[in-house]
Write a structure and sequence with these properties.
The complex is a heterodimer of chains A (about 120) and B (about 120).
Chain A lengths: L3 E4 L2 E4 L5 E7 L5 E7 L5 E7 L6 E2 L7 E4 L5 E5 L8 E8 L10 E2 L3 E5 L1
Parallel strand pairs in A: 2-11
Antiparallel strand pairs in A: 1-3, 3-8, 4-5, 4-9, 5-6, 7-8, 9-10, 9-11
Chain B lengths: L2 E5 L2 E5 L4 E8 L5 E7 L5 E7 L5 E3 L5 E5 L4 E6 L8 E11 L2 E6 L3 E6 L1
Parallel strand pairs in B: 2-11
Antiparallel strand pairs in B: 1-3, 3-8, 4-5, 4-9, 6-7, 7-8, 9-10, 9-11
The chains are: A mainly beta (about 120), B mainly beta (about 120).
């Protein structure tokens, strides 16, 4: 099993450009998440999807949109990139949406630089 | 909302010395707590998690953490540091908010192991 995979690994954008970060998991998990990681701030939740067909905002959703394409895939879109969106983006998945103490499994990350 | 505070953004220890990474949480309900490790240019990997079954939790790579309700702490320890332990460590608390459990992360502690 590959676990959680993310593409691309690295991307450079100019201000105003758009792009979509892709995430896929092969663990048959219900919930998926997008985080951004900035120095000294840990990881902050952008959006999450408790199950196929549902998405919800996290702590820092402004400037982003998401699509839960199917149970495996959860994409993050930047419609008009800004330098403040320069960050490392992590996708994660977990088994259950509500009950239990499910562990989140993380992808390797996408490093995004917005000039 | 729950929160996590990691004391010390950088910790240095000598190889073979005790590792102690501090984490304090705030929560109005019994929390679920996690420690993750991030090696350079990689995603996060679960070290251990507290699920209320036992206050002393053993994880991978010789790490363990003790849940102390009276101190609202969940400090991570390892008796003898190894060079391969050099990484960034994140404490996180799980919160049921909205439609899925969410993780709130601390700001991270960078561990340096000196030869």
């Amino acid at each position: 099993n590959a676990g959680v995979t993310q593409t691309p690994k690295f991307q450079v954008l100019k201000t105003g450009q758009s792009m979509t970060l892709q995430c896929a998991q092969d663990m048959n998990h219900n919930s998926m998440y997008w985080y951004r990681q900035d120095p000294g701030m840990g990881l902050r939740l952008i959006y999450y999807s408790a199950s196929e067909g549902t998405t919800d905002k996290g702590e820092v959703p402004n400037g982003y949109n998401v699509s839960r394409l199917n149970k495996r895939e959860f994409s993050l879109r930047l419609e008009s990139a800004a330098p403040s969106q320069t960050s490392v983006y992590f996708c994660a998945s977990s088994e259950a949406g509500l009950a239990g103490v499910e562990t989140q499994y993380f992808g390797p990350g996408t490093r995004l630089l917005v000039l | 909302a729950q929160s996590v505070t990691q004391l010390g953004s950088h910790v240095s220890v000598s190889e073979g010395a005790l590792v102690l990474l501090r984490c304090n949480y705030s929560s109005s309900v019994p929390p679920y707590l996690f420690w993750y490790v991030q090696y350079p240019n990689q995603g996060l990997q679960l070290l251990l998690k507290y699920t209320s079954a036992a206050t002393l939790v053993k994880g991978i790579n010789g790490f363990e953490a003790e849940f102390k309700k009276s101190e609202t702490s969940f400090h991570l320890t390892k008796p003898s540091a190894h060079m391969s332990d050099a990484a960034e460590y994140f404490c996180a608390v799980s919160d049921l908010s909205g439609s899925a459990r969410q993780l709130t992360f601390g700001s991270g502690t960078q561990l340096t192991v000196l030869p």
